[in-house]
Amino acid sequence: MAEFAGEKEPKALQRFLNLTSWSAALMRDLVRDYAMECFADPRGVLIADPTGFEKKGVKSAGVQRQYSGTLGRIDNCQIGTFLAYVNRRGDRVLIDRELYLPKDSWAVDFERRREAGIPDEVVFQTRPQQVQAMIDRAVAAGVPFSWFVACYNPRGESLPELVAVIGLRWPVEECFEAAKQQAGLDNYQVRKYDAWHRHITMAMLALAFLAAMARTPQKGALRTWAVTAGRERDGSRP
């Protein structure tokens, strides 16, 4: 990101992620709202999946030797739990994220938590609990969807539609691949809990913007991030 911003080194971006005062949770909500403005579909699908981030050392929040399906092995890594959104056009974006904190090595090690900047109010959650919290946020925000992949069939749909929905499981892997290759999802040098969420959320924004720009423009269908975010700050809604 620093390179594309014209910086010779990442120090300024690291200060932005680590030291400046801004809410990663608010930015997450803005990213989700922007994605829904572009891709909302009443028959949309929510897909939950983790991805791993290989790391060195023991200081980064949530890092430990653990199994990562992304890496295909047990290794020193962080695990992020994500919620993706897919519509019938095949557009797919990441709309929520949480850093997984292993119970024994992080959730109850208070000195280690303080060093990594993990707030006291953040308690241990299993990955299914993290997914449930993200679904609750999506529902509260009015995200339209008919399915949650890997959960259940809430509408009693036919077998052909079930097969079609199960086939949508793959797009979340494509989301991760695109986010890592095009938006720098896994290209970070931060250790703090908040900084991880800030970096990941900015990468999610970049991915959503690229997905929006890749669509065939339709009159009135897309607005720039600056306009959308500006209206959010002014308190007005689209």
UniProtKB/TrEMBL annotation:
**Which InterPro entries does the UniProt entry name for this protein?**
IS701-like (IPR039365), IS701-like_DDE_dom (IPR038721), RNaseH-like_sf (IPR012337)
Q: Which Pfam families match?
A: DDE_5
Specify the Transposase IS701-like DDE domain's residue ranges.
8-150
The protein's name in its UniProt record: Transposase IS701-like DDE domain-containing protein
Species assigned in the record: Streptomyces humidus
Record lineage: Bacteria, Bacillati, Actinomycetota, Actinomycetes, Kitasatosporales
